Amino acid sequence: MKTFLRLTLALVAAASPVFAAATPAILAWKAGVASIDITPEGPVWMAGYGARKKPSEGVAQKLNAKALALEDAAGNRLVAVTLDLISVPRAIREGVESQVRERHGLRPESLLLNASHTHSGPSPYAWGVPDPAYVGKAEAYGRELEEKIVRVIGEALKQSAPAGLHYTRARAGFAMNRRLRVGTEIRNSPNPDGPVDHDVPVLRVNGADGKLKAILFGYACHNTVTGFYKINGDYAGYAQAYLEEARPGVVALFMMGAGGDQNPYPRYLSLEQAAQHGRTLANAVEAALSVVEQRPLHGPLRSALGYAELDYADIGRADLERRAQSKNVAEKTRAEELLKQLQQGPLPRSYPCPVQVVQFGADLTLVAIGGETTVDYSLRLKRELAGERPAIWVAGYSNDVFGYLGSRRVIVEGGYEGYSANLGRHPGPWTTSTEDRIISLVHELSRSINH
Ligand SMILES: [Zn+2]
User: Fold this and answer.
1) How confident is the model at residue 389, as a pLDDT?
2) What is the mean predicted confidence (pLDDT) over 364-383?
3) Which of 355, 341, 344 has the alpha carbon at shortest distance from 310?
4) CB–CB of 255/220 below 8 Å?
5) Where are the chain's structural domains?
6) pTM tops 0.90
7) How many A from CA of 251 to the centre of ligand 1?
8) What is the DSSP string of 141-160?
9) CA of 268 to the centre of ligand 1 (A)
């Protein structure tokens, strides 16, 4: 029976165009992977929750920056860097971009930086650090982080060796939409009827010996299980740790999806719960790796990077004066600053949101969007691009995490992700044209790299 089964599988594999076309081409890739510890030293101000009252108290889990460098047969490259961190600050992206261009000739469109958005890591900048004693420490951490990212990219490029790439996926169900309508209000509360994206996309990297070398995987959900004062990577940190423990020598990299309006549930804010959700996600990755027909990726590797100019709505004096009366301290403080700024000259009218498209031949399209990307972007892109490419992977939190990126629906509904969260940071909320600007740029970039 066993022999018959194996034989049947072999026949199925031989008959499948996916398998038949794959084997000779896949080793045309080169891949290198590296990891660097980015755990802060001593007590730091932690990012993510405005209500924190004191600095960190020890480390429950180390944080890492990891780089996966890929190169096709023609020498086209992509370096994906994943960070166990709240954000990719724009200044750090710019610093890294210019340094790796100078040192390694890596073009901006070939560099992808993604943050897991753990709420149990350090703040890499002064913004949101209320205690002046910790502002300098946050800025020093940011400078050191930039230098470490440049170093880990150099190491991954140096490690590059012949490799095979496959795409596979599974699903995990612990992410739930966190925008619940109660009367006219949108509350932060689990909404079982709200949109979700439960995909767990996986890029499997094998060495020339056929052995697993790296796993890049994604999920669309806030890393907000834990909320206390010990540094840790939240569920994504635990998922990576479980995968690496089970497969010594393999580097597992977590890429955050469009989880801007998704929370992990149940959410008891404990380390045990973070580990449990991490286990669930690691199991989904293992399930994806057990899929028989994984899609071999062929070149060419093509990438494009553009910036969608997002307009601010409501930035007149009257709006700012109204916001300066807000009970929300961040919103009030920012409105007061902006009123002062308005006396010197006009406020900025828009903000550039990075949008990156990476194609692995006709096999896989990876779209990486800036900001705290909400789930509608992922669902819409998977629908709209599905006709052109069989596999679509949408990452959020990429290249510049400047605040929330609501979809049209979320902006119209308002609430935290659609309105109030950005007011502590930006001159105003986004207009309802935001979603279409992003999506049209994705299509434009896809077309540009197909010609
Ligand atoms: Zn967030």
Assistant:
1) 65
2) 97
3) 355
4) no
5) 23-299+373-401, 313-347
6) yes
7) 26
8) HHHHHHHHHHHHHHHHHHT-
9) 17
